[in-house]
Amino acid sequence: MAEAADFQGTSASPARRWLRRTGALLAGAPLLAGLLQLPAAASAAAASGDPVSVALDSMSPNAPTDGDTLTVSGTVTNNGKQAVTGAHVGLRVGPILNTRSGINDVAQHPDELQGIPGSEVGDKYAQKFAKLAPGVAEHFSISVPVDKLDLGANGVYEFGVALSGQTSAQPWQQVLGVQRTFLPWQPSDADTRTRTTVLWPLLSTVHMTAKTGAGELQTPVFLNDDLAKELAPGGRLDQMVSLGKDLDVTWVIDPDLLASVDAMASGNYRLQGEGDTTVAGPKEHQALAKQWLASLQKAVVGKEVVALPFADPDLASLAHRGTSVTGSLSHLKDATDVAATTVKTVLHVTPSTDYAWPVNGAVDPSIMRVATSAGADRVIARSDSLQETAGLSYTPSAARPVGGGTTAVVADAKLSTAFEGDLTKAADSTLAVQEFLAQSLEINAQTDQQRSIVVAPQRLPTAAQAQAMAAAVRALQGGTWSQAQDLTAAAKAKPDPSATTHIPSTSVYPTYLRRQELPASAFELIARTQDKLDDFQVILSDQSRVVTPFGRAINRGMSTSWRGQSDDGDAFRNGVEGWLDDLAGQVRLIDKSETKLSGRSATIPVTVQNNLVQPVGHLVLRLTSTQPTRLKIGGKAYYEQPVDIAGGHAQSVKFTTSANANGRATVIAQLYTEDGQEYGAPVTFDVKVTEVTPTVMLVIGGGVLLLVLAGFRMYTQRKRAAARQAGEGGAGAAGEDSDGPGNPEAPGDRLPEESDSAAGADDPEQPSDPAPDTAPESTDPSGTGERVDR
């Protein structure tokens, strides 16, 4: 304050002091600039990208203990335009991190040059490079005894690998690149170990269509051959099984995947081709499927297996967009019912079906209601959805009673999402593993209270992600602060009374997840397809041949695998409906042209064709006259007859008709199911009635009268002839001029009329109606197996 007052007072002495200080400051400026140049350069490099990138490809062991030697390897790459000279890679141990948020902060900026952790371990444990040329990557590998790292208390340490060197533009030693990660340090068994449940998801996308072959085996048709790629050595599903078999995990399986692989293993599967064509699947893929199933059967022995509803239906989409469509929830129940049977049939183990798993563990009240509607009383949620509100200083156990006898099993969000990135590079995989282990150790260090923690990773890990997950789980299960536990034990564990049980409202459901949901139109199409299936199955003698594949296809239409793929999902669901329409159309009425009736009564045949391989029945064929005053069917406006047809055959059903007047009458043939539902399209045709006219009837009546008169005349003539013969016979007996009793009558004695009449009596030719176009025939229906040539 005195200096300020002197400066403001303009006296000579304070002014001289101010000038001296200003001169000293200006003289020291170059030195200050030199001193500040290193951090300033480092800051600029951080802002514009590190001059040298450091990739940490491996750390072994991931969580060292006393007596271990830590080996770190990777690559350094000069990203600049100038060579780096006098360079070396050194190891740095930073401060212990006491909170999970502290771990998060480091993980968000792994290559930031500011705040480089600690000091180098020592020149003895560094790798030197005389020169790093621009754009050139150099490999390094450093091994150091753990006791040289000067680790203190148990916990998570920030750990860095840094490259130092100089360039011609900045000719002094400086850190040009760094990679931060974590070093979990728990050399002896923890007093209390966290019980950790790791879910091992075995799911895939939809592969099978609703189509099957016509033979007894019902050869399945696949959308494509992508499943074989996943099963092949090194493929995603191959890695999941080969890695998971040695881990103490809970297998979470979609039964649809098992059904698809089993169908492929059975052989003769086909692939959807162009249009309606199919091609045979490669024979070698059958062997792949068999081998994979055999490996999986061994891998799950003695492990807990959780079966999701068939085809992993999208619970959130169903809750938000499907419940308004009648029957949608019934499909979830069907998918749950078939799940256990499928897993038991294929894997020979009895799974648990008590769990529902919404996408990313995101829940709201409507999702909880839908999730439990099919019988599941445990819902796998995630902590970023069911967030803590009590300000706990530790991570509580997973089990949370949320009311109504339902338990939310809340997976830890940070552990569950640790492996979601692109882990094809070894450096990215190493960082993910180390962060996972650091978070797990920090959870254990939070409190002495033993807790149950659940890890629920992404549904469809890539092969690289699966490898990183397996590495982390192996290190965790071989470590000193965690012990494995299955999901059922975690769900039954004593809940923390301070942990939240409040289900978030629907309004806070993540927007990015809502955008991916199946549209309401998807559930409307599914409902329409189900209605058609219900109508179709009632006529079948073997309903399972249709109900089973189409029921499973409907389940696949609700799968979470269609999230974010609306066009592909619509194409699949439309394909299911289209194929069902094609099958139902194989039982149909044959089109009929105009029919002519030229008599008072005749029969009209209507042909029903069955091109299915199985017999159909429970059908009624109704023939209806639209003008019953002119033409009646069976004596009334319409008539019905039952229909039963063998597979691959047709049946001609005959109806008796009667005409009351001439003219054209329209007739409608329609198939119905026995419960009165229309089946298929009607066939409409005209019947032209050409019944005899009154004039013709008068002529015919006159002809009949002439015949009667002619008959009467013949009768009277015969009677006269007989009387004459009787008179002549009497005279012959009395006189000798008789011809004698044995002489025949002389030819000239027969009257011409009598002779003609006698001849006509033997073979009369009477007028008759012209033959009708539809000839009278038996009104009984033809036999079931009758083939009709059209």
From TrEMBL:
Residues 723-790 are annotated as: Disordered. Keywords: Membrane, Transmembrane, Transmembrane helix. It comes from the Bacteria. InterPro entries: DUF6049, Ig-like_fold, TonB_box_CS. The chain crosses the membrane at residues 696-715. This is DUF6049 family protein.
